[in-house]
Structure to design on (332 residues):
């Protein structure tokens, strides 16, 4: 069948899409956080990869090789008909970090979710976003039964730069997660403004 | 087997793994000539004339599924992959095919390293507050 040249009639609304990444160690509550604000049950996408294909991500000859599945959970928030925000939980295992490069491309910013009982689990994520100048906010997920530490103590333990926001949050609570996400966008705006100033002066 | 071929009550379960190897659907292709990598949040939009993809015998059922889903409302690559239960890489190739034959076009997200307009960011904040 031969189709004519594409004719732009009255097109459906084509939304502007944005993404925020949610990173942190295994079991820290990334998918819970996504689920707390997503209008859809967190969906899962999978990517097949060969061990040999890393890190160039060329999956040719994938069949029969050692294939690995990397799963990413994501959610969606339709802010307006023409403005949609996606949240992506990053694959937790460090050996899938090359996937982050793709995920973080064009990302608005990130949330690094931390658990004070296993703070070291998020060191790598903090490091990753710092190196790439991706704006991020650290959200300390306040688990029941975990000791509470003052924000300043956590900040020092993570060796955070002074301008990186750190907030206490509850990944199950919609209002709390909303605040964290607003923090990410605000921080991204500040960082962009700083960068612009640095360029123009 | 269900009539629509999509039924969930197959005699096998997911533990058996995919019956068709995922990249068989792309005839072994892992990249699409015309497309550089589609972002997970790139939005696939059907062209107005893409109302009868079944009529094209060169299209696979998965191609037809993608057109069908996107006709209802534009879908991101990530959503298509989740909805069709296909690896993202497979969806990219299939969407690339559909772009080539002009059944769909792809609305790319904000280019990397370029933060979206400040007004958009403000809209995002307001939108989140209003949730």
């Amino acid at each position: 069948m031969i189709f004519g040249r594409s004719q732009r009639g009255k097109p459906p609304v084509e939304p502007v899409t944005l993404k925020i990444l949610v990173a942190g160690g295994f079991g820290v509550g990334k998918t819970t956080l996504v689920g707390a604000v997503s209008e859809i049950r967190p969906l899962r996408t999978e990517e097949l990869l060969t061990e040999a294909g890393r890190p160039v991500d060329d999956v040719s000859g994938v069949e029969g090789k050692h294939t690995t599945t990397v799963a990413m959970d994501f959610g969606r928030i339709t802010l307006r008909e023409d403005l949609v925000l996606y949240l992506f939980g990053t694959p937790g295992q460090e050996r899938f970090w090359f996937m982050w490069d793709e995920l973080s491309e064009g990302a608005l910013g990130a949330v690094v979710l931390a658990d004070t009982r296993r703070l070291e689990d998020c060191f790598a994520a903090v490091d990753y976003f710092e190196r790439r100048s991706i704006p991020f906010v650290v959200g300390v997920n306040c688990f029941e039964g975990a000791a509470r530490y003052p924000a300043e103590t956590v900040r020092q333990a993570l060796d955070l730069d002074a301008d990186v926001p750190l907030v206490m949050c509850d990944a199950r609570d919609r209002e709390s997660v909303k605040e964290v996400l607003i923090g990410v966008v605000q921080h991204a705006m500040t960082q962009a403004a700083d960068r612009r100033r640095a360029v123009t002066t | 087997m269900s009539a629509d071929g999509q039924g969930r009550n197959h005699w096998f379960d997911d533990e058996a793994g995919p019956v068709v190897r995922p990249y068989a659907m792309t005839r072994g292709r892992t990249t699409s000539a015309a497309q550089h990598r589609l972002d997970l949040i790139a939005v696939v939009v059907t062209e107005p004339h893409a109302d009868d993809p079944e009529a094209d015998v060169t299209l696979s059922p998965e191609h037809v599924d993608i057109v069908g889903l996107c006709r209802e409302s534009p879908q991101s690559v990530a959503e298509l992959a989740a909805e069709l239960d296909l690896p993202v890489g497979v969806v990219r190739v299939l969407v690339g095919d559909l772009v080539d034959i002009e059944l769909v076009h792809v609305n790319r997200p904000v280019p990397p390293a370029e933060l979206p307009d400040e007004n958009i960011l403000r809209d995002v904040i307001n939108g989140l507050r209003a949730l």
